[in-house]
From TrEMBL:
Designated name of the protein: Enoyl-CoA hydratase
MF (Gene Ontology): catalytic activity
Lineage: Bacteria, Bacillati, Actinomycetota, Actinomycetes, Pseudonocardiales
Gene3D superfamilies membership: 2-enoyl-CoA Hydratase, Chain A, domain 1 (3.90.226.10)
SUPFAM superfamilies: ClpP/crotonase
InterPro entries, alphabetized: ClpP/crotonase-like_dom_sf, Enoyl-CoA_hydra/iso
Biological processes, Gene Ontology terms: fatty acid beta-oxidation
Protein's organism: Amycolatopsis orientalis
Highest taxon above the source species: Bacteria
Length: 256
């Protein structure tokens, strides 16, 4: 298992939160727990906004399927609640949050991007999309509602069922990102935009953001307990574990 690390840098009152976890900034239980704590620290630290980015050439490739493969049902039981809570820590942050997508944002990485207020994607080979159903597992409710909020209900079925990933021009056309810029300017542009949003009085921004997110938070609050139990059952089923194992063996082992 790669050592989990999340770096926080101060860029003129904006917290640049950099995901650093192995080659692909994948999401496991400990990493999700650390992200929650770091964002709490940022909020308490008086930062005016957040830029969320990844290290290397990938924003995040989503769930660490090798950990799921190796840990099985016991690991999944701890992991799924931590994953949803990590998504919600970004989605529920009261101040401006801008995603500086330095590279691929796939599956859980795309959910993290959708949880941000604005998204800036690097031009070139970067792809964004949600591939969970191709792996053989459903979305936790929090993830699906965050995708609905960030990307829109009209396109969500297409994104989820087809599981396609989109290059920058298509991502911009589909509304998955707000801007595309050269890789070297993604981070400075995201910081610039976060500073602009942070000029809005904090209380007014937080209240408006809460108003916009309210329908999604209400659905999560109403249905999460029952839905999470069913998602856990599906992820832990022999069929899902076999599909994950096959995906890891077929796709990820070749990338090792």
């Amino acid at each position: 298992m790669a050592t989990s690390s999340i770096r926080v840098d101060d860029e003129g009152g904006i917290a640049v939160v950099t995901l650093q976890h192995g080659k692909a900034n994948t999401l496991d239980t400990e990493f999700c727990q650390e992200l929650i704590v770091r964002l709490e620290d940022v909020q308490l630290g008086g930062y005016r906004g957040v830029v969320l980015t990844g290290s290397g050439s990938i924003f995040s490739a989503g769930v660490d399927l090798r950990r799921v493969h190796d840990g099985g049902a016991g690991y999944i039981e701890d992991f799924l609640p931590a994953l949803s809570d990590a998504f919600l820590s970004v989605f529920g942050f009261p101040g401006p949050v801008v995603a500086a997508l330095n590279g691929h944002a796939i599956a859980g990485g795309a959910v993290l991007a959708a949880a941000c207020d604005r998204r800036i994607l690097a031009s070139g080979p970067s792809r964004i999309g949600v591939t969970e159903l191709l792996v053989g597992v459903p979305f936790p409710l929090a993830a699906l509602e965050i995708l609905r909020s960030g990307f829109g209900a009209d396109i969500l079925g297409e994104l989820a069922f087809l599981g396609e990933t989109h290059l920058p021009d298509d991502a911009l056309r589909l509304g998955l990102v707000d801007e595309v810029t050269a890789p070297e300017t993604v981070l400075p542009r995201a910081v610039e935009l976060a500073k602009k949003l942070a000029e809005i009085p904090a209380a007014a921004y937080a209240h408006t953001k809460a108003q916009l997110h309210r329908p999604f938070h209400e659905r999560i609050a109403e249905h999460r307990t029952g839905d999470d139990a069913h998602v856990l059952e599906l992820w832990s089923s022999p069929e899902a574990l076999a599909a994950i194992n096959a995906y890891v063996d077929r796709v990820l082992r070749g990338q090792a």
